[in-house]
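Field reference: sequence -> structure
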Amino acid sequence: MIVKRLLTTESKRNIKDVFKTNPVYRTINAAYKEQETQMKTLRFSPEEIWVNCFIGFDHILKNRDSIAEVTFRMWHDIFCELRDDAKEASREFEENELKTATSCILYSIISCMLASGDMEMIKYTDLLSAQISMQSNLPTICLPFINHIEDNFLSYIQKYISTGKYISNKLVSPKSYADPINPIYTPQERIKAKVGVLKRLEFMKGYLPDSETLIMTSSNFNTMIEAAEFLIENDVVKKQETKLHTNMPVAHLRYTFYLVYKNEGKSVGREKWLEFLGETFAQMQDNKASIKNHFSDIPKGYNIYSKQKKKK
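Structure field:
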């Protein structure tokens, strides 16, 4: 299997769509998007840095027993392969642009190695940093990455390593692109998820058990469903200037959305549903710590909602 280091326009678009929530992609895109405009001849994109990052990182993961050999001339190997692919694709470039592109790739690989927590791997990062320093200005390469690194970058890399699945194995065709940690919905799956979420949350249109008090107003219920559907469709939490109010206990509201995450919303990801709770509901503003720390805890008496009265 030969994976090209340079991408077609179609491949770039597909990567943006499939991996838009991937923390490594989001970090690289934020850190190095400006580099693309500065490379007026090569036009090396964040998507290409991201692809080459995983080609290199996966190569290290697959060859841990020979990591010294893999990393010994890694900058040089990446540079030469990029140069050869550019010539084959009739893509013009300036040598300094190619050096910058290679250094951005290598620092992205270094960041993944540091996030791994594997000391045997980490001890080779100084060697790779020295290779960058010999060809580029190291601070101009590393500081944008450090300044834009996503909060869940480290946890993603550690989960990624534990799966034993490699993104680089899925890069042969845009149709096969897939993130082993956060697989995205197909259009049909999005529709199914929205239907499932509506069905699961429908009880919130009714009354609190053994009470004449509505769980929430019809208007707030509709806004909540719109926000949940927006998250499923766009993988982005919708901002709520006016927070929604419910009469459910905080623990019951939190666990309700844990069930949404566990059953219909897993592809969106746990962190996004936690963010959704904090952004959407008024009663969560003073309870944000409990959202994360007790998300999956079953509150006492939660089964009472199966016996509630319907809205009149």
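Note: The first helix runs from residue 9 to 18.
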